[in-house]
Amino acid sequence: MKLWTGRFKKELDPRTNDFNRSLPFDSRMYRQDIEGSLAHAAMLGRQGIISDGDCEKITDGLLSILHDIESGALTFDGEYEDIHTFVEANLTERIGDAGKRLHTARSRNDQVALDLRLYLRDECETLVDMLKSLCEVIADKALLYKDAVMPGYTHLQRAQPIVFGHALLAYGEMLIRDIGRIKDCRKRMNICPLGSCALAGTTYPLNREAVAAALFMDGISNNSLDGVSDRDFAIELCSALSLIMVHLSRFSEEIILWSSSEFKFIELDDAFSTGSSIMPQKKNPDIAELVRGKSGRVFGDNMTLLTVMKGLPLAYNKDMQEDKEAVFDAVDTVEKCLAAFTPMLDSITVYKENMRKAASGGFINATDCADYLVSRGLPFRDAYKATGELVARCIELNVDLETLPISEYKKICPLFEDGVYGAISLETCVNNRSVAGGPAPSEVEKCAAKLKQSLFCL
């Protein structure tokens, strides 16, 4: 069935039909299409545009279609062009001419714009819930390992001591911002375009606000041209999803490094690892690697949407059919990544001793050594230079700052006393970094609690 027959004298070439069809991928919006049609029909009835009897038939017919789809009694078979054609054809088959009146004062242009907004609005809720679950795991792990000293890195070189909980909470902060972006995106997409029709509205006395209210939307689109041609909300969602994947990819890279034999800070659970077909000793972080790899897929979906939309004149163009596969793929990919990543992180084994051992090398307490001299009256730049000379001396003697004899300290600067060893112990270095947002265990505890509390407010 085609909704646009009448103008054409020839049958559509099967190749054109196959190329033009969107039902294989837009059928996932069946619920939203029916919800939008129910609200539209109810409004048409209240406005006297269709009779109460037709409105009741349409409502009953749509609900029966919804029931049959979800029970499996009705499948998406046949050569229907799209989900709108599928629903309307089945409706007309069930209730007769009343079904043909459903499309009064509506175009597929504003109908698909509504369906996509409703579908992505629902997916936003799912994404927020999944991100919250990951944040919960991060907060719990951070509290558990608030005193697990490890090296912090810049340039992938050991830099300063932190704790494992602090490293985890950094990703919690990223994900909280991601939640905020998804929720902001949802606000802007929750606008009803129905009533824009093909591009120029309609002469029928619609109550667009009533339809928006019935669908729990925050308002109506203010311009009929924009109403049918706006896909900002899909691009914005894809952009937010791309940032989520940036964060998951960075986190995955850390997990891959931490679980390697060279680091051995953590070990992944067997349930979230794979082996090699030829090397029996291997335990591979495939989940993390796949998440890292799938980031490029979501970035590509985002670029697809930007490219599709960048040169389109107003209003609707068939190019815009390409929006759905890209945004659906981005949503599906992120949800699959979160579904695998969260339990993977939750089940890791943490080797605190290995973290502490790594932190004791690399002179990551050098800044604290310089601060010790500053506390004794030496200007920081001079303290920095003296500490640099100490590090060079340690390298010559193949020792670290904790085991360098005090006599060597005094050769560099007479202000050094035995108290320097307490000042540069890794535990002291971490505990003293209790500035707000710092890695001190006391601050990690506060920040983990704050993260968990913020999840209740989102």
Task: Tally the helices.
Answer: 19
Radius of gyration: 30 Å
Helix share bin: 55-70%
pLDDT under 50 segments (min length 5)?
none
Head-to-tail CA distance between termini: 45 Å
Q: What percentage of the residues does DSSP assign to strands (E)?
A: under 5%
Commentary on this structure:
Helices cover 62% and strands 4% of the residues. It is mainly α. It has a two-stranded antiparallel sheet. It has a two-stranded antiparallel sheet with strand order 3-4. Helix 3 crosses helix 8 and helix 6 (108-144) runs parallel beside helix 12. The longest helix is centred in the N-terminal third of the chain and has 37 residues, at 108-144. The mean pLDDT is 94.
Q: What keywords describe this structure?
A:
458 residues, mainly alpha, two-stranded antiparallel sheet, elongated
